[in-house]
Design brief:
Chain lengths: 388, 125
């Protein structure tokens, strides 16, 4: 059976050359970068090189890159660390209602500490409105944190415009760029952000590693304690195999970015257009053009997402859904609900995220199999009436 | 996360469909929570002569619907009324914890179908 992996938004396979390097830094170059001897020095070289590779990908200085255990830690740090560092200036934070839980839950934690958080609404395409940001800013606002590309629906947020507003008022600007780095050009100076989150395993690097970009001069407190690593900001012996893997993955994806962006955009549109042509009662979620090149998200009415995923999986197709059953709670995706999509339609959402290995033939296969799966489930659904 | 039995009943469910001249129809759930089950029964000599279902929901919802219909087909109404959701889950070799409540409503739908049948019988009398 053909296997088609369409869940690159969840994670990506590690490139062979990256895996080889990770292995080398687990075996031959196993030293602790803090050690004085040759083993340590060799490790330190790898660490420094990885920092340059990651910095290059996002237009930063190497000393502005701080390695973390991944995107979640970087988001937590950006939000909680900024709040703690600037609490004497004000206690108001602005975010959006469609952030990843790594950001949302950090904000909720701060609310318990007495901070006020504004969760901005989004429009029907999942886009934050500049006007809403403007209106939410008070003289107490210390941080704006809004993701660059939404992980579920792929909508690209107007970060540059929002960051300009933040800069005007001396507010720290953070963006979670986990779903944009490596997919579209990301440059910290173009965007004008102070803090930016990157994850390795979304760009064909290993899991358990990421970084927070901290613009020189940005006030941020530590949230971990216990050592001088990462210029005294993030203690703990570095996950060196992960970090060098992340570095190489960052360099390689940067080289392919432009070409891959065009190729995936074509495949994405072929998939969206093909589904709309073949299946009735389908709604595309997210902005049609201001959209990451790898993201397809749609709601297929009268059927439920998990049943859809299981059926696709039996045909070798791996995707994800925003249905309650797959979100681990009783409610479907908070992103789809924030976009004004009714519960029953959100339950039938399907996310397919493309990547390097996907081909035209993969898309043809999905376009052949998906209608069959939908027809079978609709035939079982009491909500579906063929005459509709 | 699902047992082989659940996957088997999800993949090849028995008794899917509607009964146009059903003697009783029962529906539970709502689209907001993501699960709706509808049961149709045909009764003859106090027994469930035929039973069909339609379900909007996850893999567990479809599998439990199908299993419930299979367990009661040919049984007397009194026997069928005794079926509870837990027995349906057990017959499938168990369900993941979070599925026990939201997606395991087939016995409830069946009870509603039997009630519908019985209330119609009273009207006739």
């Amino acid at each position: 059976m053909r296997k088609v992996y369409l869940d690159h938004g969840a994670t990506t396979p590690v490139r062979t050359e990256v895996a080889d390097l990770v292995y080398k830094y687990m075996t031959d170059n196993f030293g602790n970068p803090s050690s004085v001897h040759s083993f340590g020095r060799e490790a330190k070289k790898g660490l420094d090189h990885a920092r340059e590779q990651v910095a290059n990908l996002i237009g930063a200085e190497p000393k502005e890159i701080f390695f973390t255990s991944g995107g979640t830690e970087a988001d937590n740090w950006a939000i909680i660390g900024t709040a703690h560092a600037k609490k004497d200036k004000g206690k108001h934070i602005i975010t959006s209602s469609i952030e990843h839980h790594a950001a949302l839950d950090a904000c909720k934690y701060l609310e318990k500490e007495g901070f006020q958080v504004t969760y901005l609404p989004v429009d029907a395409d999942g886009m934050v409105r500049i006007e809403d940001v403007k209106n939410a800013i008070t003289d107490q606002t210390i941080l704006i944190t809004i993701m660059h590309v939404n992980n579920e629906v792929g909508t690209i947020q107007p970060i540059k415009e929002i960051a300009a507003l933040a800069k005007e008022k001396g507010i720290t600007m953070h963006t979670d760029a986990v779903q944009s780095v490596g997919k579209i050009p990301v440059n910290v100076d173009d965007l004008g952000v102070d803090l930016l989150t990157v994850s390795s395993h979304k760009i064909y690097g290993p899991k358990g590693v990421g970084c927070l970009y901290i613009r020189k001069g940005t006030k941020i407190s530590n949230i971990h304690f216990g050592g001088a690593q990462e210029r005294n900001k993030r203690p703990g012996t570095e996950n060196l195999p992960g970090i060098v893997g992340f570095g190489l993955a960052a360099e390689l994806i940067g080289k392919e970015l432009k070409e891959e962006q065009e190729r995936l955009t074509k495949l994405r549109d072929k998939l969206i257009d093909g589904i709309v042509e073949r299946i009735e009662h389908v709604k595309i979620n997210g902005h049609r053009t201001q959209r990451a090149p790898h993201n397809v998200n749609l709601s297929i009415r009268f059927i439920e997402g998990e049943a859809l995923l299981l059926s696709l999986d039996m045909r070798g197709i791996a995707a994800s859904s925003g249905s309650a059953c797959t979100s681990g709670s009783l409610d479907p995706s908070h992103v789809l609900l924030a976009m004004g999509i009714p519960h029953e339609i959100a339950h039938g959402s399907l996310r397919m995220t493309l990547g390097k290995a996907n081909t035209e033939e993969d898309i043809d296969y999905v376009l052949e199999e998906l209608p069959k799966v939908v027809e079978r489930l609709r035939a079982m659904s009491p909500l579906y009436n063929k005459k509709q | 996360m699902y047992t082989d039995k659940v996957m088997e009943y999800f993949t090849n469910p028995v008794n899917v469909g509607e009964i146009e001249d059903a003697d009783g129809v029962g529906q539970v759930g709502n689209p907001v929570c993501g699960d709706i089950m509808k049961m149709y029964i045909k009764v003859k000599d106090g027994k469930i002569a035929d039973i069909k279902f339609k379900t909007f929901g996850c893999g567990a919802a479809i599998a439990t619907s199908s299993m419930a219909t299979e367990l009661v087909k040919g049984k007397t109404l009194e026997e069928a009324k005794k079926l509870d959701n837990k027995q349906v889950a057990e017959a499938l070799g168990g369900l993941p914890g979070q599925k026990m409540h939201c997606s395991n409503l087939a016995a409830d739908a069946l009870k509603k179908a039997i009630e519908d049948y019985e209330s119609k019988q009273k009207e006739v009398k």
